[in-house]
């Protein structure tokens, strides 16, 4: 169905139909999109393309360095840039190379081995 949908980029200059269901840019900013398929219009979504210069000095913080492996205890992961701004929403988080569904880590696997938590923007 995606190939049959019309995807529109919304900007101050108006709307532009994308030629394919993919979007990439080297220009930092926030981009807003919505899709139309037959008589249905999706809600708008926004995607932020970060300026690499603003990402220098970004630090990954964890709320707790150790948790219980009961599946209920967790650590919150946040990204803060060099200016002290929270840029967590720009990151994808990983535990031992496996992508996390958000910015929280919990586990039910007991181990004395540390878990390597990383982020990618």
In short:
The protein has no helices and eleven strands.
Strand content is 35-45%
Mean pLDDT: 89
Q: Fraction of residues in helices? A: under 10%
**How many β-strands, per DSSP?**
11
Backbone shape = elongated
Structural class: mainly beta
Distance between the termini: 29 Å
Low-pLDDT stretches: none
Report the order of strands and helices: EEEEEEEEEEE
- Sketch the major β-sheet: 5 strands, antiparallel
Our Rg estimate from Cα atoms comes to 19 Å
Number of helical stretches of at least 4 residues: 0
Layout of helices and strands, plus pairs?
Elements: E1 6-11, E2 14-17, E3 29-37, E4 40-41, E5 45-49, E6 59-62, E7 75-80, E8 92-95, E9 98-99, E10 104-105, E11 117-120
Antiparallel strand pairs: 1-2, 1-3, 3-4, 3-5, 6-7, 7-10, 8-9, 8-11
Write up this protein.
The structure is a single chain. The chain is mainly β and about 120 residues long. It is built from no helices and eleven strands. The strands form three sheets. Strands 1, 2, 3, 4 and 5 form a five-stranded antiparallel sheet that branches. The chain has a three-stranded antiparallel sheet with strand order 6-7-10, with no helix packed on it. A three-stranded antiparallel sheet has the order 9-8-11, with no helix packed on it. Strand 8 and strand 9 form a beta hairpin. It is elongated, with a radius of gyration of 19 Å. The model has no long low-confidence stretch (mean pLDDT about 90).
């Amino acid at each position: 169905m995606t190939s049959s949908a019309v995807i529109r980029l919304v900007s101050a200059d108006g709307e532009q139909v994308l030629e394919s269901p993919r979007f990439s840019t080297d220009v930092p900013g926030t981009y807003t999109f919505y899709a139309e398929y037959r008589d249905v219009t999706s809600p708008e979504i926004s995607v932020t393309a970060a300026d690499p210069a603003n990402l220098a000095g970004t630090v990954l913080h964890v709320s707790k360095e150790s948790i219980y492996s009961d599946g209920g205890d967790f650590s919150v992961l946040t990204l803060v840039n060099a200016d002290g701004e929270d840029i967590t929403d720009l990151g994808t988080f990983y535990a031992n190379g496996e992508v996390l569904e958000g910015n929280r880590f919990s586990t039910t696997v007991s181990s004395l081995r540390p878990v390597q938590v990383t982020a990618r923007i």
